[in-house]
């Protein structure tokens, strides 16, 4: 596959959307909902759209995650592992796109396991009374996985269903947008 200017533009749009949604969420709801033990990142609802638009979305969301994690720097490990988790999650959704709900469900797992384990190590230096169950590796993985299921499988799948209808995709394709819909 060759990237053309439309693919680059779509990649940029998704990277920007991911960052903007995180900044807005952080400034309205609060930072711990995005970068803490309860990682309910609303921007992750964009991950299922990799099933519709493919590689540009995977690249854009990975870049957006990198930029977001760099802005709210918890450490190099968060920038690296969070980006890798989003890259894997979006790729899984893309590869399993023929089974969309299953793809969204499975796509939530890499974020839960990778980010949950990484945050458990990061927050292990905090006083345990602040996190009770979440202070353990298993608790943190469970917390981030459940949050990912909410954003990717519930919200993201709903968004995917709405945008994946033929009457929405056809006009976009007629204007030159490439879709991964078969």
Architecture blueprint of SSEs:
Blueprint: H1 5-28, H2 32-35, H3 50-53, H4 55-71, H5 76-95, H6 100-123, H7 137-163, H8 166-174
Descriptive notes:
This protein has 182 residues and is mainly α. The chain has a single domain, classed as Arp2/3 complex 21 kDa subunit ARPC3 (Orthogonal Bundle), CATH 1.10.1760. 71% of the residues lie in helices and 0% in strands. It contains 8 helices and no strands. The radius of gyration is 16 Å and the shape is globular. 41% of the residues are buried.
Briefly summarize what is shown.
This protein is mainly α and 182 residues long. Helices cover 71% and strands 0% of the residues. It contains eight helices and no strands.
Q: How much helical structure, as a percent, in the residues?
A: over 70%
Largest sheet: none
CATH classification, class level? Mainly Alpha
Low-confidence stretches: none
The proportion of strand residues reads: under 5%
Q: Please give the CATH architecture.
A: Orthogonal Bundle
CATH topology: Arp2/3 complex 21 kDa subunit ARPC3
Counting copies of identical and different chains, the oligomeric state is single chain
Class from secondary-structure proportions:
mainly alpha
Shape by Cα distribution: globular
Secondary-structure element series = HHHHHHHH
Gap from first CA to last CA: 16 Å
Query: How many strand elements?
Result: 0
Count of helical stretches: 8
Q: Round the Cα radius of gyration to an integer and report it.
A: 16 Å
The overall average pLDDT, rounded, is 87
Please give the domain count.
Answer: 1
